[in-house]
Amino acid sequence: MTAEGHFVEGQLTGGNVHDVTVASGLFEDIVGCYALGDAGYDSDRYRRDLMSNNNIPVIPGRKNRKIPIDCDKKIYKLRSRIEMFFGKIKENRRLGMRYDKL
Predict the structure, then answer these.
(1) Considering the domain boundaries, does residue 58 fall inside one?
(2) Is 17 helix (H, G, I), strand (E, B) or coil?
(3) 33-39, long-range: CB within 8 Å, 24+ apart, which pairs?
(4) Euclidean distance between the first and final Cα of the chain, in Å?
(5) Among 36-45, 52-61, 63-72, 89-98, which is the least confidently predicted range?
(6) Nearest to 83 by CA among 4, 1, 23, 13
(7) How high is the pLDDT of residue 101?
(8) DSSP letter, residue 66
(9) Which among 37, 44, 65, 66 could bridge 59 via Cys, Cβ 3.0 to 4.6 Å?
(10) Are residues 57 and 42 in contact, defined by beta-carbon separation less than 8 angstroms?
(11) Helices and strands: H and E segment counts in the chain
């Protein structure tokens, strides 16, 4: 997400696909940005991939990590905009899908 609140890139996956499996392809072309994600994206390999392109991972560490990882809470709060966007899509499914019963 940019400073103005615009989405840079996104990808939808099936419910049976883990998010981190497709995440590396999402940030290939993005350089020098903050990469926001929830604890499901917390893996050392994914963090290394992000940092190799000068991206800053803002991903909270999982509770079972041996070495805790700090993330910038102020930037992480911006992730709520993404959650609200998808919440609105789910609420207004009639507008997003544009289908009739017949």
Answers:
(1) yes
(2) coil
(3) 33/8, 34/58, 34/72, 34/75, 35/59, 36/1, 36/75, 36/76, 36/78, 36/79, 36/82, 37/79, 38/79
(4) 39
(5) 89-98
(6) 1
(7) 56
(8) S
(9) 37
(10) no
(11) 5, 2
Looking at the structure of the chain, the number of domains it has is 1
Q: What is the pLDDT of residues 62-99, one digit of tens each?
A: 888 888 888 888 888 888 887 888 788 778 776 555 55
Residue 15 domain-assigned?
A: no
* CA gap 20, 63 in Å, rounded: 17
In the chain, beta strands by DSSP E: 34-36, 56-58
Assigned domain for 50 exists: yes
pLDDT digits (tens, 9 = 90+) for 20-33: 777 777 777 778 88
pTM over 0.70? The answer is no
Q: Is residue 42 part of a domain?
A: yes
CA distance 52 to 50: 5
Q: 27 lies in which domain range? A: 20-97
